[in-house]
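A reminder before we start the practical. When you read a complex entry, don't treat the lines as separate problems. The point of joint prediction is that each chain is placed relative to the others, so the output describes one connected object in space. Small molecules and nucleic acid strands, if listed, are placed in the same frame. In the example below there are two entries. Take a minute to note the order of the lines before looking further.
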Amino acid sequence: MRHLLSTSDLGLDDALRILDISEDMADVSTREVRKLPTLRGTTVVNLFYEDSTRTRISFEAAAKRLSADVINFAAKGSSVSKGESLKDTAQTLAAMGADGIVIRHPSSGAPRVLADSGWVDAGIVNAGDGTHEHPTQALLDAFTMRRRVHGAASRGRDLDGLRVVIVGDILHSRVARSNAWLLRTLGAQVTVVAPPTLLPVDVSRFGVDVHYDLDEALFQVRPDVVMMLRIQQERMNEAFFPNAREYARAWGLSAARFRALPPETVVMHPGPMNRGLEISDEAADSPRSTVREQVANGVAVRMAVLYLTLAGDREDSL
Amino acid sequence: MLSQADIARALTRISHEILESNRGASGLVVLGIPTRGVVLAERIAESLATISGEPIPVGSVDVTMYRDDLRSQPTRASRPTSLPVGGIDGKTVVLVDDVLYSGRTIRAALDALSSLGRPRAVRLAVLVDRGHRELPIRADFVGKNLPTSTAERIYVRLAGVDADELVAIEGGAATEGAVGAGAHA
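Here is the predicted structure of the whole assembly.
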Protein backbone atom coordinates (compact mmCIF):
# COMPACT_ATOMS: atom_id res chain seq x y z
CA MET A 1 0.00 0.00 0.00
CA ARG A 2 1.66 3.18 -1.19
CA HIS A 3 -0.68 5.67 0.54
CA LEU A 4 -3.91 5.65 2.52
CA LEU A 5 -6.07 8.48 1.21
CA SER A 6 -9.63 7.23 1.17
CA THR A 7 -11.64 4.22 2.28
CA SER A 8 -13.33 4.21 -1.13
CA ASP A 9 -9.97 3.02 -2.55
CA LEU A 10 -10.06 -0.08 -0.37
CA GLY A 11 -11.46 -3.37 -1.62
CA LEU A 12 -12.70 -6.05 0.77
CA ASP A 13 -9.35 -7.89 0.77
CA ASP A 14 -7.42 -4.66 1.45
CA ALA A 15 -9.72 -3.71 4.30
CA LEU A 16 -9.55 -7.17 5.90
CA ARG A 17 -5.78 -7.18 5.56
CA ILE A 18 -5.53 -3.89 7.45
CA LEU A 19 -7.97 -5.08 10.13
CA ASP A 20 -6.19 -8.43 10.56
CA ILE A 21 -2.78 -6.80 10.93
CA SER A 22 -4.41 -4.40 13.42
CA GLU A 23 -5.35 -7.45 15.51
CA ASP A 24 -1.70 -8.44 15.71
CA MET A 25 -0.73 -4.84 16.51
CA ALA A 26 -3.35 -4.72 19.28
CA ASP A 27 -1.75 -7.85 20.79
CA VAL A 28 1.54 -5.96 21.07
CA SER A 29 0.02 -3.53 23.55
CA THR A 30 -0.82 -6.43 25.88
CA ARG A 31 2.81 -7.53 26.08
CA GLU A 32 5.61 -6.78 28.48
CA VAL A 33 7.54 -4.84 25.83
CA ARG A 34 5.01 -2.73 23.91
CA LYS A 35 7.32 -1.95 21.03
CA LEU A 36 8.27 -3.43 17.68
CA PRO A 37 11.49 -2.67 15.78
CA THR A 38 9.66 -2.63 12.43
CA LEU A 39 10.10 1.02 11.38
CA ARG A 40 13.49 1.62 12.98
CA GLY A 41 15.32 4.32 11.02
CA THR A 42 12.10 5.60 9.42
CA THR A 43 10.91 9.17 9.96
CA VAL A 44 7.21 9.99 10.17
CA VAL A 45 6.04 13.61 10.07
CA ASN A 46 2.66 14.53 11.53
CA LEU A 47 1.72 17.51 9.36
CA PHE A 48 -1.32 19.06 11.00
CA TYR A 49 -2.97 22.13 9.48
CA GLU A 50 -5.94 21.75 11.85
CA ASP A 51 -6.07 21.38 15.59
CA SER A 52 -6.31 17.81 16.67
CA THR A 53 -4.93 16.39 19.84
CA ARG A 54 -6.39 12.90 19.78
CA THR A 55 -5.62 11.93 16.23
CA ARG A 56 -2.12 13.39 16.39
CA ILE A 57 -1.28 11.67 19.67
CA SER A 58 -2.71 8.42 18.36
CA PHE A 59 -0.54 8.56 15.23
CA GLU A 60 2.44 9.57 17.35
CA ALA A 61 1.95 6.63 19.71
CA ALA A 62 1.51 4.28 16.74
CA ALA A 63 4.70 5.46 15.03
CA LYS A 64 6.70 5.26 18.26
CA ARG A 65 5.49 1.74 19.03
CA LEU A 66 6.90 0.77 15.63
CA SER A 67 10.23 2.47 16.54
CA ALA A 68 9.87 5.24 13.93
CA ASP A 69 11.17 8.73 14.62
CA VAL A 70 8.32 11.22 14.85
CA ILE A 71 8.33 14.90 13.99
CA ASN A 72 5.23 16.93 14.83
CA PHE A 73 4.55 19.88 12.58
CA ALA A 74 1.64 22.09 13.62
CA ALA A 75 0.78 24.76 11.08
CA LYS A 76 -0.02 27.32 13.75
CA GLY A 77 3.09 29.28 14.71
CA SER A 78 5.07 27.75 11.84
CA SER A 79 6.28 28.84 8.44
CA VAL A 80 2.76 28.13 7.17
CA SER A 81 1.45 31.12 9.11
CA LYS A 82 4.06 33.11 7.20
CA GLY A 83 2.41 32.05 3.95
CA GLU A 84 4.38 28.97 2.91
CA SER A 85 2.59 26.78 0.35
CA LEU A 86 1.76 23.09 0.88
CA LYS A 87 4.26 22.25 -1.85
CA ASP A 88 7.13 24.11 -0.19
CA THR A 89 6.32 22.73 3.23
CA ALA A 90 6.15 19.18 1.88
CA GLN A 91 9.42 19.54 -0.01
CA THR A 92 11.10 20.94 3.09
CA LEU A 93 9.93 17.91 5.07
CA ALA A 94 11.11 15.57 2.30
CA ALA A 95 14.51 17.24 2.30
CA MET A 96 14.74 16.47 6.01
CA GLY A 97 14.21 12.81 5.18
CA ALA A 98 10.51 12.23 5.91
CA ASP A 99 9.56 8.69 4.81
CA GLY A 100 5.93 9.12 5.73
CA ILE A 101 3.67 12.15 6.04
CA VAL A 102 0.51 11.96 8.12
CA ILE A 103 -1.52 14.96 7.01
CA ARG A 104 -4.59 16.69 8.38
CA HIS A 105 -5.77 19.61 6.32
CA PRO A 106 -8.90 21.83 6.24
CA SER A 107 -9.14 21.46 2.45
CA SER A 108 -10.81 18.34 1.09
CA GLY A 109 -8.39 16.57 -1.23
CA ALA A 110 -5.14 18.02 0.12
CA PRO A 111 -3.66 14.56 0.91
CA ARG A 112 -4.52 13.40 -2.62
CA VAL A 113 -2.74 16.43 -4.06
CA LEU A 114 0.32 15.64 -1.98
CA ALA A 115 0.27 11.97 -3.05
CA ASP A 116 -0.28 12.59 -6.78
CA SER A 117 1.81 15.71 -7.29
CA GLY A 118 5.21 14.04 -7.31
CA TRP A 119 6.51 16.73 -4.94
CA VAL A 120 7.59 14.10 -2.44
CA ASP A 121 8.27 10.34 -2.42
CA ALA A 122 6.94 9.87 1.09
CA GLY A 123 3.98 7.65 1.86
CA ILE A 124 0.93 9.82 2.58
CA VAL A 125 -1.66 8.96 5.22
CA ASN A 126 -4.84 11.01 5.33
CA ALA A 127 -5.60 11.99 8.94
CA GLY A 128 -8.69 14.00 7.97
CA ASP A 129 -9.13 16.35 5.03
CA GLY A 130 -11.82 19.03 5.20
CA THR A 131 -15.28 17.50 5.01
CA HIS A 132 -14.02 14.65 2.84
CA GLU A 133 -12.54 11.62 4.59
CA HIS A 134 -10.91 10.34 7.76
CA PRO A 135 -9.99 6.79 6.76
CA THR A 136 -8.13 5.67 9.90
CA GLN A 137 -11.15 6.67 12.02
CA ALA A 138 -13.40 4.49 9.86
CA LEU A 139 -10.92 1.61 10.08
CA LEU A 140 -10.75 1.83 13.86
CA ASP A 141 -14.54 2.00 14.05
CA ALA A 142 -14.85 -1.10 11.87
CA PHE A 143 -12.17 -2.82 13.94
CA THR A 144 -14.05 -1.99 17.14
CA MET A 145 -17.35 -3.29 15.71
CA ARG A 146 -15.70 -6.48 14.49
CA ARG A 147 -14.19 -7.16 17.91
CA ARG A 148 -17.55 -6.56 19.61
CA VAL A 149 -19.30 -8.93 17.21
CA HIS A 150 -16.73 -11.69 16.68
CA GLY A 151 -14.52 -11.30 19.78
CA ALA A 152 -11.26 -13.24 19.69
CA ALA A 153 -12.28 -14.95 16.44
CA SER A 154 -12.28 -11.68 14.48
CA ARG A 155 -9.42 -12.39 12.10
CA GLY A 156 -10.54 -12.79 8.50
CA ARG A 157 -14.15 -11.87 9.27
CA ASP A 158 -16.17 -9.05 7.67
CA LEU A 159 -19.25 -7.22 8.99
CA ASP A 160 -21.78 -8.96 6.78
CA GLY A 161 -25.34 -8.06 7.73
CA LEU A 162 -24.38 -5.78 10.63
CA ARG A 163 -26.94 -2.97 11.00
CA VAL A 164 -25.25 0.36 11.68
CA VAL A 165 -27.06 3.66 12.27
CA ILE A 166 -24.96 6.83 11.99
CA VAL A 167 -26.59 9.89 13.56
CA GLY A 168 -25.70 13.56 13.28
CA ASP A 169 -23.90 15.97 11.02
CA ILE A 170 -23.48 13.80 7.93
CA LEU A 171 -22.90 16.88 5.76
CA HIS A 172 -19.65 18.01 7.38
CA SER A 173 -18.55 14.66 8.75
CA ARG A 174 -15.53 13.05 7.17
CA VAL A 175 -16.02 10.27 9.72
CA ALA A 176 -19.48 9.49 8.33
CA ARG A 177 -18.24 9.55 4.74
CA SER A 178 -15.27 7.24 5.38
CA ASN A 179 -17.43 4.94 7.47
CA ALA A 180 -20.15 4.74 4.84
CA TRP A 181 -17.71 3.56 2.16
CA LEU A 182 -15.82 1.15 4.38
CA LEU A 183 -18.80 -0.38 6.15
CA ARG A 184 -20.49 -1.00 2.84
CA THR A 185 -17.33 -2.70 1.54
CA LEU A 186 -17.35 -4.90 4.65
CA GLY A 187 -20.97 -5.89 4.03
CA ALA A 188 -22.70 -3.85 6.74
CA GLN A 189 -26.06 -2.21 6.19
CA VAL A 190 -25.72 1.52 6.93
CA THR A 191 -28.49 3.97 7.79
CA VAL A 192 -27.84 7.66 8.31
CA VAL A 193 -30.10 9.87 10.41
CA ALA A 194 -29.89 13.66 10.36
CA PRO A 195 -31.90 16.82 9.96
CA PRO A 196 -32.30 17.48 6.20
CA THR A 197 -30.02 20.52 6.52
CA LEU A 198 -27.15 18.31 7.67
CA LEU A 199 -27.34 15.79 4.83
CA PRO A 200 -25.29 16.23 1.66
CA VAL A 201 -27.23 16.75 -1.57
CA ASP A 202 -25.74 13.64 -3.15
CA VAL A 203 -26.40 11.37 -0.17
CA SER A 204 -27.77 8.68 -2.50
CA ARG A 205 -24.21 8.09 -3.72
CA PHE A 206 -23.18 6.87 -0.26
CA GLY A 207 -25.22 3.73 -0.73
CA VAL A 208 -26.99 4.18 2.60
CA ASP A 209 -30.58 4.37 3.81
CA VAL A 210 -31.67 7.83 4.95
CA HIS A 211 -33.95 8.74 7.84
CA TYR A 212 -34.82 12.14 9.28
CA ASP A 213 -36.52 10.87 12.42
CA LEU A 214 -34.22 9.18 14.95
CA ASP A 215 -36.91 7.37 16.95
CA GLU A 216 -38.44 5.95 13.80
CA ALA A 217 -35.01 4.86 12.50
CA LEU A 218 -34.02 3.14 15.76
CA PHE A 219 -37.39 1.38 15.94
CA GLN A 220 -37.38 0.20 12.33
CA VAL A 221 -33.72 -0.76 11.92
CA ARG A 222 -33.14 -2.24 15.39
CA PRO A 223 -29.43 -1.50 14.98
CA ASP A 224 -26.47 -3.53 16.19
CA VAL A 225 -24.44 -0.32 16.34
CA VAL A 226 -25.46 3.30 16.87
CA MET A 227 -22.73 5.76 15.99
CA MET A 228 -23.26 9.29 17.27
CA LEU A 229 -21.30 12.01 15.48
CA ARG A 230 -20.00 15.12 17.13
CA ILE A 231 -21.82 18.35 16.38
CA GLN A 232 -18.88 20.37 15.13
CA GLN A 233 -19.62 23.75 16.59
CA GLU A 234 -16.61 25.22 14.75
CA ARG A 235 -18.35 24.41 11.47
CA MET A 236 -21.76 25.68 12.56
CA ASN A 237 -21.26 29.16 11.18
CA GLU A 238 -24.62 28.92 9.43
CA ALA A 239 -27.93 28.00 10.99
CA PHE A 240 -28.31 24.28 10.32
CA PHE A 241 -30.72 23.77 13.22
CA PRO A 242 -32.51 26.27 15.46
CA ASN A 243 -30.56 25.66 18.68
CA ALA A 244 -28.63 23.04 20.61
CA ARG A 245 -31.54 22.05 22.85
CA GLU A 246 -33.78 21.33 19.93
CA TYR A 247 -31.04 19.27 18.28
CA ALA A 248 -30.51 17.27 21.47
CA ARG A 249 -34.24 16.62 21.77
CA ALA A 250 -34.68 15.41 18.20
CA TRP A 251 -31.33 13.79 17.31
CA GLY A 252 -29.45 13.26 20.58
CA LEU A 253 -29.03 9.82 22.15
CA SER A 254 -30.86 10.70 25.34
CA ALA A 255 -31.10 8.36 28.32
CA ALA A 256 -34.66 7.43 27.29
CA ARG A 257 -33.65 6.61 23.71
CA PHE A 258 -30.64 4.66 24.98
CA ARG A 259 -32.84 2.53 27.25
CA ALA A 260 -35.21 1.82 24.39
CA LEU A 261 -32.43 0.31 22.23
CA PRO A 262 -32.15 -3.46 21.84
CA PRO A 263 -30.06 -4.76 24.79
CA GLU A 264 -27.12 -5.82 22.60
CA THR A 265 -26.81 -2.53 20.71
CA VAL A 266 -23.37 -0.94 20.92
CA VAL A 267 -22.95 2.84 21.15
CA MET A 268 -20.00 4.48 19.40
CA HIS A 269 -18.68 8.02 19.25
CA PRO A 270 -15.47 9.22 17.56
CA GLY A 271 -14.87 11.82 20.28
CA PRO A 272 -14.53 14.40 21.61
CA MET A 273 -18.11 14.10 22.92
CA ASN A 274 -20.51 16.97 23.54
CA ARG A 275 -22.26 15.42 26.52
CA GLY A 276 -25.87 16.50 26.78
CA LEU A 277 -25.95 17.52 23.12
CA GLU A 278 -25.55 14.50 20.84
CA ILE A 279 -25.03 11.92 23.60
CA SER A 280 -26.25 11.57 27.19
CA ASP A 281 -24.04 10.60 30.12
CA GLU A 282 -25.98 7.39 30.56
CA ALA A 283 -25.22 6.26 27.01
CA ALA A 284 -21.62 7.50 27.00
CA ASP A 285 -20.65 5.84 30.28
CA SER A 286 -22.49 2.56 29.78
CA PRO A 287 -20.57 -0.72 29.26
CA ARG A 288 -22.18 -0.80 25.82
CA SER A 289 -20.31 2.37 24.87
CA THR A 290 -17.07 1.72 23.00
CA VAL A 291 -15.65 5.24 23.27
CA ARG A 292 -12.51 4.23 25.17
CA GLU A 293 -12.06 1.03 23.16
CA GLN A 294 -12.13 3.15 20.02
CA VAL A 295 -9.24 5.24 21.34
CA ALA A 296 -7.17 2.17 22.25
CA ASN A 297 -7.95 0.47 18.94
CA GLY A 298 -7.00 3.65 17.09
CA VAL A 299 -3.35 3.14 17.99
CA ALA A 300 -3.37 -0.47 16.76
CA VAL A 301 -5.10 0.41 13.48
CA ARG A 302 -2.70 3.29 12.83
CA MET A 303 0.25 0.98 13.53
CA ALA A 304 -1.10 -1.35 10.86
CA VAL A 305 -1.56 1.52 8.40
CA LEU A 306 1.93 2.90 9.02
CA TYR A 307 3.36 -0.59 8.68
CA LEU A 308 1.60 -1.20 5.37
CA THR A 309 2.44 2.20 3.88
CA LEU A 310 6.04 2.52 5.13
CA ALA A 311 7.64 -0.85 5.91
CA GLY A 312 7.74 -2.63 2.57
CA ASP A 313 9.32 -2.01 -0.78
CA ARG A 314 7.94 1.42 -1.72
CA GLU A 315 7.41 0.37 -5.35
CA ASP A 316 4.83 -2.16 -4.22
CA SER A 317 1.22 -1.09 -4.19
CA LEU A 318 -1.81 -2.58 -2.54
CA MET B 1 12.49 -36.27 -0.47
CA LEU B 2 10.33 -36.98 2.55
CA SER B 3 6.99 -38.76 2.57
CA GLN B 4 4.23 -38.33 5.12
CA ALA B 5 5.55 -41.35 7.03
CA ASP B 6 9.11 -39.95 6.98
CA ILE B 7 7.84 -36.65 8.39
CA ALA B 8 5.94 -38.40 11.17
CA ARG B 9 9.03 -40.49 12.06
CA ALA B 10 11.25 -37.40 12.07
CA LEU B 11 8.91 -35.54 14.42
CA THR B 12 8.72 -38.50 16.80
CA ARG B 13 12.51 -38.75 16.86
CA ILE B 14 12.82 -35.00 17.47
CA SER B 15 10.37 -35.32 20.37
CA HIS B 16 12.46 -38.09 21.98
CA GLU B 17 15.61 -35.99 21.53
CA ILE B 18 13.95 -32.96 23.13
CA LEU B 19 12.89 -35.00 26.17
CA GLU B 20 16.33 -36.56 26.45
CA SER B 21 18.21 -33.26 26.32
CA ASN B 22 15.71 -31.57 28.67
CA ARG B 23 15.76 -34.61 31.04
CA GLY B 24 11.98 -34.82 30.96
CA ALA B 25 9.15 -32.52 30.05
CA SER B 26 9.36 -30.02 32.88
CA GLY B 27 9.39 -26.37 31.87
CA LEU B 28 9.05 -27.09 28.16
CA VAL B 29 7.12 -24.67 25.90
CA VAL B 30 6.88 -25.38 22.17
CA LEU B 31 6.46 -22.34 19.91
CA GLY B 32 5.99 -22.58 16.15
CA ILE B 33 6.91 -19.96 13.58
CA PRO B 34 3.96 -19.34 11.19
CA THR B 35 2.73 -20.81 9.00
CA ARG B 36 4.05 -24.37 8.84
CA GLY B 37 6.16 -24.16 11.98
CA VAL B 38 2.94 -23.83 13.96
CA VAL B 39 1.56 -27.06 12.52
CA LEU B 40 4.83 -28.83 13.30
CA ALA B 41 4.94 -27.34 16.82
CA GLU B 42 1.47 -28.68 17.56
CA ARG B 43 2.45 -32.15 16.38
CA ILE B 44 5.69 -32.13 18.37
CA ALA B 45 3.86 -30.95 21.51
CA GLU B 46 1.31 -33.72 21.03
CA SER B 47 4.00 -36.32 20.65
CA LEU B 48 5.91 -34.96 23.66
CA ALA B 49 2.72 -35.25 25.69
CA THR B 50 2.14 -38.82 24.54
CA ILE B 51 5.68 -39.90 25.38
CA SER B 52 6.00 -38.06 28.70
CA GLY B 53 2.39 -38.27 29.87
CA GLU B 54 2.38 -34.55 30.69
CA PRO B 55 0.54 -31.81 28.79
CA ILE B 56 2.98 -29.59 26.88
CA PRO B 57 2.13 -25.87 26.38
CA VAL B 58 2.21 -24.88 22.73
CA GLY B 59 1.88 -21.54 20.91
CA SER B 60 3.12 -19.48 18.02
CA VAL B 61 5.50 -16.58 17.57
CA ASP B 62 5.20 -14.39 14.49
CA VAL B 63 8.42 -12.80 13.26
CA THR B 64 7.10 -10.52 10.49
CA MET B 65 7.64 -7.28 12.41
CA TYR B 66 11.18 -8.32 13.35
CA ARG B 67 12.46 -9.25 9.88
CA ASP B 68 15.52 -7.49 8.46
CA ASP B 69 14.36 -7.72 4.84
CA LEU B 70 11.08 -5.78 5.14
CA ARG B 71 12.28 -2.94 2.94
CA SER B 72 13.33 -5.15 0.05
CA GLN B 73 10.06 -7.08 -0.18
CA PRO B 74 6.41 -6.35 -0.81
CA THR B 75 4.70 -5.85 2.53
CA ARG B 76 3.86 -9.11 4.25
CA ALA B 77 0.79 -9.67 6.34
CA SER B 78 1.55 -10.55 9.93
CA ARG B 79 0.29 -13.69 11.67
CA PRO B 80 -0.98 -14.06 15.19
CA THR B 81 1.44 -14.59 18.05
CA SER B 82 -0.14 -16.63 20.82
CA LEU B 83 1.61 -17.65 23.98
CA PRO B 84 0.30 -20.42 26.21
CA VAL B 85 -1.05 -19.46 29.61
CA GLY B 86 1.95 -19.19 31.90
CA GLY B 87 4.04 -17.41 29.27
CA ILE B 88 7.68 -18.17 28.60
CA ASP B 89 9.48 -16.62 31.58
CA GLY B 90 11.89 -19.14 33.08
CA LYS B 91 10.78 -21.84 30.61
CA THR B 92 12.75 -23.82 28.06
CA VAL B 93 11.34 -22.68 24.73
CA VAL B 94 11.64 -24.98 21.73
CA LEU B 95 11.25 -22.90 18.57
CA VAL B 96 9.94 -24.90 15.63
CA ASP B 97 10.20 -24.05 11.94
CA ASP B 98 9.86 -26.09 8.77
CA VAL B 99 13.07 -25.19 6.93
CA LEU B 100 16.30 -23.73 8.30
CA TYR B 101 18.13 -21.81 5.58
CA SER B 102 19.86 -18.42 6.03
CA GLY B 103 19.05 -18.28 9.75
CA ARG B 104 17.50 -14.82 9.42
CA THR B 105 14.01 -15.96 10.37
CA ILE B 106 15.41 -17.53 13.54
CA ARG B 107 17.34 -14.32 14.34
CA ALA B 108 14.04 -12.43 14.04
CA ALA B 109 12.30 -15.04 16.21
CA LEU B 110 14.93 -14.65 18.94
CA ASP B 111 14.32 -10.89 18.93
CA ALA B 112 10.56 -11.46 19.09
CA LEU B 113 11.00 -13.84 22.04
CA SER B 114 13.03 -11.31 23.98
CA SER B 115 10.15 -8.84 23.88
CA LEU B 116 7.70 -11.54 24.99
CA GLY B 117 9.58 -12.56 28.10
CA ARG B 118 12.78 -14.11 29.36
CA PRO B 119 13.02 -17.87 28.75
CA ARG B 120 15.57 -19.92 30.69
CA ALA B 121 16.83 -21.38 27.44
CA VAL B 122 15.83 -21.40 23.76
CA ARG B 123 16.27 -24.47 21.54
CA LEU B 124 15.62 -24.81 17.85
CA ALA B 125 13.91 -27.70 16.09
CA VAL B 126 13.49 -27.82 12.31
CA LEU B 127 12.06 -30.39 9.93
CA VAL B 128 14.67 -29.69 7.25
CA ASP B 129 18.11 -28.06 7.44
CA ARG B 130 19.15 -27.10 3.93
CA GLY B 131 22.41 -25.32 4.80
CA HIS B 132 23.63 -21.93 3.46
CA ARG B 133 23.58 -20.17 6.83
CA GLU B 134 24.23 -16.42 6.81
CA LEU B 135 24.27 -16.02 10.59
CA PRO B 136 25.89 -17.97 13.44
CA ILE B 137 22.77 -20.05 14.13
CA ARG B 138 22.36 -23.82 14.27
CA ALA B 139 19.50 -26.18 15.02
CA ASP B 140 19.47 -28.38 18.12
CA PHE B 141 17.04 -30.87 16.62
CA VAL B 142 16.91 -31.63 12.89
CA GLY B 143 14.43 -33.89 11.10
CA LYS B 144 16.58 -34.21 7.98
CA ASN B 145 19.67 -32.55 6.61
CA LEU B 146 19.15 -31.82 2.93
CA PRO B 147 22.23 -30.34 1.28
CA THR B 148 20.96 -28.09 -1.51
CA SER B 149 22.23 -25.53 -3.95
CA THR B 150 20.90 -21.99 -3.56
CA ALA B 151 19.21 -22.29 -6.96
CA GLU B 152 16.99 -25.09 -5.67
CA ARG B 153 13.70 -24.70 -3.89
CA ILE B 154 12.43 -26.75 -1.04
CA TYR B 155 8.72 -27.31 -0.72
CA VAL B 156 7.20 -28.34 2.56
CA ARG B 157 3.55 -29.25 2.43
CA LEU B 158 1.69 -30.29 5.54
CA ALA B 159 -1.80 -31.66 6.04
CA GLY B 160 -3.76 -29.01 7.89
CA VAL B 161 -2.48 -26.12 5.74
CA ASP B 162 -1.95 -27.88 2.41
CA ALA B 163 -3.77 -30.49 0.39
CA ASP B 164 -1.08 -33.15 0.80
CA GLU B 165 1.99 -33.78 2.92
CA LEU B 166 5.58 -34.09 1.68
CA VAL B 167 8.96 -32.41 1.43
CA ALA B 168 10.32 -31.95 -2.10
CA ILE B 169 13.21 -30.25 -3.82
CA GLU B 170 12.71 -28.64 -7.17
CA GLY B 171 15.98 -27.99 -8.79
CA GLY B 172 17.82 -25.24 -10.46
CA ALA B 173 17.10 -22.81 -13.24
CA ALA B 174 14.33 -24.86 -14.82
CA THR B 175 11.80 -24.07 -12.12
CA GLU B 176 13.17 -20.69 -11.15
CA GLY B 177 10.39 -18.25 -10.45
CA ALA B 178 8.00 -21.04 -9.58
CA VAL B 179 5.73 -20.06 -6.76
CA GLY B 180 4.41 -22.77 -4.53
CA ALA B 181 3.14 -23.39 -1.06
CA GLY B 182 5.86 -23.08 1.52
CA ALA B 183 8.69 -22.60 -0.99
CA HIS B 184 12.02 -21.76 0.64
CA ALA B 185 14.37 -20.48 -2.01
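Discuss with your neighbour: DSSP finds three helices and eight strands in chain B. What might explain this?
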